[in-house]
Each structure stands twice: as C-alpha cells, then as structure tokens.
Amino acid sequence: MSRVSFVSPQSMGHITRADIVELKHKTNHCREIPKRANVLKLSQDGQTILVADKFGDIFSYPLVPPEPIQQVQAQPTETVGSKSVAVAMHDNPHGTLILGHASIITDFVLTHGEKQVISADRDEHVRVSWYPDGWDIDRYCLGHKK
C-alpha cells in the first residue's frame, strides 16, 4: 500500500490509500484547507502533510486529524472584503504555520533528515529555512547576473 495525497478544486485535502496492483483506493481522511492549496507533500515518515497555499504560506497538518472537539457557538467575526479576519490572520484550527513568502510558493522540498525546508516563490526567491521553525531563515539563494 502507498499513500496518495491530492487537493481538489474545492480546497479539500484528501489522503488516499492506493493499492497500485489491484487498482483500488479508499479515502482515509479528507479535510478542509482554509486557503487554496497549490503544493502538497508528505513528510518522510508519512505522518505529516505539508501544504503550500496560493497566499505564500506553508502549513503542516497531522496525517490523522485530531478527534473533533465540540465548539461553542462563536460570535460573528468582522469581515475585510469577502474574507473573515480570522482567515486573513492565519486562523487554521488544525494546521501549524511553518513559513510564509510574500508571493505564491511555486514549490518546496524538505531536505534529507527533514532539518530544513527549501521553498521557491513566483518572484524567483529561493529560501532555505529550518524545519519546523520556518521563521528561522538559514539562507537565501540568489542568482542575479546584473
């Protein structure tokens, strides 16, 4: 058995167990991601999902979501445009913010041993940050020829 993960257009993260030999699949977990995702990776141990969204942030989620907690009815939040303040301020109940870029992240990779995350954005910025402490930037990779 191998795990396949993908994001649907409705911003739902799906973790699917796929048996390539028998061509069967079973969806194990499905969860809503607050922002549109464009890159989805699994950690080397397969227990953590890393998601880069269209707003330049990388979040981590446990593979198996925590048990649902009964929530108290919340008061309505203020809105900024069409987004709620909670979403604008990275309110993500089950995700942990790892790092953020100023523009869309085009790709990222965890190094062997998962000590660092290398991320690249649409503005051609490549950054090496410590994982899981993405705020601690190790270096920038710049390739200017001018």
TrEMBL record:
It is found in: Nucleus. Transmembrane segments: none annotated. InterPro entries: Trm82, WD40_repeat_dom_sf. Its main location: nucleus. Keywords: Nucleus, Repeat, WD repeat. It comes from the Eukaryota. The keyword Cell membrane does not apply. One of its GO terms (cellular component) is tRNA methyltransferase complex. PANTHER family: TRNA (GUANINE-N(7)-)-METHYLTRANSFERASE NON-CATALYTIC SUBUNIT WDR4, WD40 REPEAT PROTEIN 4. This is Uncharacterized protein. It comes from Thanatephorus cucumeris (strain AG1-IA). The lineage of its organism: Eukaryota, Fungi, Dikarya, Basidiomycota, Agaricomycotina.
